[in-house]
Amino acid sequence: MKEKITLGVVVAFFLFFLKNLSSPVLAISEAKDTISTSRPSSYTTLGVGVSLSDTQAIVVDNGSRWIASDSATIIGATTFSATVASMSAANTPTTSKRTVYFATAATGIGHSGSVIYTPITAKHTVSFRNSVSIPDTGKIQIIFPVGVGNTGALPADDSFSFNGLAQNNISLSGGGAVCGSWAVTESTKTIQCNLSTGLTGPATIIINIGSANPTLINPSKSAAAGTADLWTIKIKTLDATSATIEETKVRVGTVDSVEVYATVDPTLSFTIAGMTNGAAMNVGNSGCSNTETVNTGFNSTATEVNLGVLNSSMINRSGQLLTVTTNATSGYSLTATSSGHLVDNAIGYWIADAQGTPTNNDTPDPDFLTAGTPAFGIHPCGLDITSVGLWGTGPTGGGADAKYANPSSIYYYTLASDTNGPITGPLGNGITTVKYAATVSTAVPAGNFHTAMTYVATPSF
Amino acid sequence: MFETLNNLKLKHSIQISKFKFRIATTIVAFALLFASSTAVQAQTISLSIWPPLLEVQMVPGKSVIQNYQLANNTDSFLEITPVIAPFEPDGENGQIKILPADNSPYFFSFTTKEKFNKSFTLNPKETRQLSLKITLPKNNAEKDYYFTLLFSSSANRQDQKNQAASVTKIGTNILLTSSSVEKPALLGRIYRFSTPMIIDSFSPVDFDLVLENFGRTFFKPFGQITVAGLLKQKGEIKLLEQNILSGSKRKLTLSSYKPHLPLGPFKAKLEFSLNEEGALPVLSSQIVFWYLPYRLIALSAGIFLLLTVRKNLIKGENKPNHP
User: Fold this and answer.
1) What pLDDT is recorded for position A392?
2) Looking at the predicted structure, is the pLDDT value of residue B19 above 60?
3) Is any Cβ of chain B less than 8 angstroms from the Cβ of A457?
4) Chain B residues within an 8 Å CB radius of A406
5) Is residue B16 classed as helix, strand or coil in its secondary structure?
6) pLDDT tens digits along A216-225
7) Pairing relationship of beta strands A26-27 and B208-213 according to DSSP bridges
8) Tell me, what DSSP letter sits at residue A189?
């Protein structure tokens, strides 16, 4: 009896396997889906309302990224779009929020919680190789993940949105197959080709979804930053009764290929202004205590500093007022280079640099000027002067106080810096008076001496 | 003999006077020339740039466009020349050293009409939008590239002027990361984390924190210093998310800390991640310091010593003098 039961079980198993072997679902080979852009769509809500003419929007940081030239649509009181200029870093201006800066002002109103989005459309090129013939009445299906999120023209966070994909925007080629019609069903995320000419043998089939215009909308970011979102897409061939002949799955990833952040600090400004003859050097600079006056007989301008009549009995002084303002939290630095010595190119004679010829950046140290000893240089004065002791303080000349240097075209001298932004100026931060001074001896030939100073204001990183 | 010397001195004096006169005449002549020049000599040059810092991470072979706004805040026409130059970190405070620029535009071009090393005119009060296209070649090494986009107010001139001409340049920094993966490897370490061992109870504590990036991609620290005292004092200093560039060190800007009860031993625990998700690697370090009112103790000890000495002196004076 026991042996009969055992035999019965074995036969039953055998029949079961035989049944399954008789109707196999074969696997399609060489399947892939290539998308024209892997960038995820951007979709989040406003963290703070946007008013008419605003040039930025504070958004909830859900991983969505906006980059320059994106068109961001806000569904607010009305639906309007704004061109994006850039986006702030994480947690800026506040925790879990970012600022999206617009290149153009908002033309509508968006409330806190209103949707802001930028759909990223992509062309999908699905290719595969069948192993079993598909009858003329057969079908080919491409099935995207069925989500519960947005559909239509809005990006979803769980699938590709079909965005009104039209039949004439899909094409099929390969193996002589002809698609008689297409059925696009967003609710099941299915794109189906109803063949009019099937495949008699294995062939490589290529289906272009968005062949005329990229239309399917990439999902928005849902995986944690640093991880690509992976989407499973099914490919099926079916017979006339819609029974599956072959099928396979492919995975496609959406991931940002470019991440761009502009600092939240919107501007760096650099102003250079001339000084009036007779004016004190510290006019407009509360951080500079030097009250020496411009004694050249000429006003300086933003582009030229006339040092006047140079002679051996005095040191000629002039100046410019340089102002740097920035909201950058890391501050700024101000450096100077020059075209070279204060030189008369016609006769090839130059007035020596106050500190000696530069041999490196900020080297050698600035030095004093003494009337009658040929020398030329500049001296910065203000709150932000880099290494005040290096440049000295107080009046010019006589071997004490203010020290001067003339940089070169290769080696710069750092004049001022401030690592604690923002730099706004009223207390003297960001303001530097640059004094120019020169003196000659009787040995200096007459001529037209000149040099060109270049001041470079850069933000800290 | 004396007469000859005097004559020589007089002659020399006349020569000096003539020399001064020649210098003066030449300089005044040129000054007049400038005064009559038709060129505009702006009393003020003022430029603004937005944004001052751009951070970009790109897959090689991709491109991106970033808009910049350059504003002429003055009432004069300005000739502007855009230049792009690589830079490297200078020191530990986030400042830069601009490296010599060759004529190569590197990965950059303008999609607006401007060209590198070619000047264009910025009208008075004009704000111009320039679109910078960054295209990273596919075969470029996957690492960081640092550049400064400079706008010069005028070209360097070497003309016949006897004055110091000045050129204004304003720069905006670009931190470009070339990476085929979304999250490139970040390699950092705590180079220095210290504070004086004993802090006076009347002073705040200032931490000295220097981080080093020995990787190929810049990072920001995301974390804090947690301070805890034996007497249940607690505090936290959030780290500013400052960029530490590849192959450099940076001294972080930290706010001072003073506990409500500045007394006793304290532990300061530095803990941060190199990415904003707080994912690994998380770096940490701990130091111990003491809050003691040592100035008060020193002052009290000094006063006590003075009083003792004074007392002893008085005692000595009051002692009877033995014959």
Assistant:
1) 94
2) no
3) yes
4) none
5) helix
6) 999 998 766 5
7) unpaired
8) T
Our measurement of the distance from residue A92's CA atom to the centroid of its chain's CA atoms, rounded to an integer in Å, reads 15
Cβ–Cβ contact A455 with B under 8 A:
yes
Residue A24 tokens read as 């196999």
Verify whether the Cβ–Cβ distance A459 to B156 is below 8 Å.
Answer: no
Asked if residue A18 has pLDDT above 80, the reply is: no
Query: Whole-number mean pLDDT of chain B?
Result: 82
Question: Does any CB of chain A come closer than 8 Å to the CB of residue B95?
Answer: yes
Nearest to A315 by CA among A296, A289, A342, A291: A296
B100: nearest CA partner in chain A: A410
The total number of residues shown for chain B amounts to 323
Q: How many angstroms away from the CA of A134 is the closest CA of chain B?
A: 40
Shortest distance, CA A306 to any CA of chain B (angstroms): 5
Partners of B53 on chain A (C-beta within 8 Å) are 262-263, 265, 328, 459, 461
Q: Which residue has the tokens 């996957």?
A: B142
List, for residues B63-91, the tens digit of each pLDDT value.
888 888 899 998 889 999 999 999 999 99
Number of Cβ pairs closer than 8 Å across A and B? 282
CA angle, A65 then A69 then A74, to 5°: 65
Rounded Cα gap, residues B100 and B86, in angstroms:
7
| pLDDT greater than 90 at residue B175 | yes
In chain B the beta strands, taken as DSSP E runs, fall at 44-50, 53-58, 63-72, 78-90, 95-98, 108-110, 120-122, 127-135, 144-152, 164-178, 188-194, 198-200, 208-213, 222-229, 234-238, 248-251, 264-273, 282-292
Residue B51 and residue A265 in contact, taking contact as beta carbons nearer than 8 Å: yes
Residue B156, min C-alpha distance to chain A (Å): 7
Mean pLDDT, all residues of chain A: 87
Note the pLDDT tens digit of each residue in B178-214: 988 878 889 999 999 999 999 999 999 999 999 999 9
Q: Is A454 helix (H, G, I), strand (E, B) or coil?
A: strand
Bridge partners of A309, per DSSP, are: none
pLDDT for residue A227: 61
Residues 127-146 of chain A whose Cβ lies under 8 A from any Cβ of chain B: none
Shortest Cα distance from A81 to chain B (angstroms)?
A: 17
For B215, the token pair is 């990787």
Q: In the structure, what pLDDT confidence band is assigned to residue A179 with cuts at 50, 70 and 90?
A: very high
In contact, A297 and A277? CB cutoff 8 Å: yes
Residues near B242 by Cβ (< 8 Å), separated by ≥ 6?
A330, B94, B220, B221, B250, B252, B253
Task: Note whether B179 and B221 are within 8 A (CB).
Answer: no
The position carrying tokens 């909308």 is A217
Exposure string of A320-333, with b = 16+ CB inside 10 Å and e = fewer, is bbbbbbbbbbbbbb
pLDDT at position A21, please? Answer: 42
Tokens of A18: 């035989």
Residue A377 phi/psi, 5-degree rounding, is: -175, 180
Which of A263, A410, A420 comes nearest B52 by C-beta?
A263
The alpha carbon of residue B231 is apart from the nearest alpha carbon of chain A, in Å, by 31
Residue B56 sits at the chain A interface (C-beta within 8 Å): yes
Quick: pLDDT tens for B278-307.
666 789 999 999 999 998 899 999 999 999
Q: What residues 268-307 of chain B have any CB closer than 8 A to a CB of chain A?
A: 275-277, 279
Q: Do B98 and A89 touch (CB under 8 A)?
A: no
Residue B38: CB atoms within 10 A of its CB come to 4
Of A263, A298, A450, the CB nearest to B53: A263
d(CA B46, nearest CA chain A) in Å: 4
Across the interface, which of B148, B166, B242 has its CB nearest the CB of A455?
Answer: B166
Question: What are A134's two structure tokens?
Answer: 């598909």
Cα separation, A64 vs A222, whole angstroms = 9
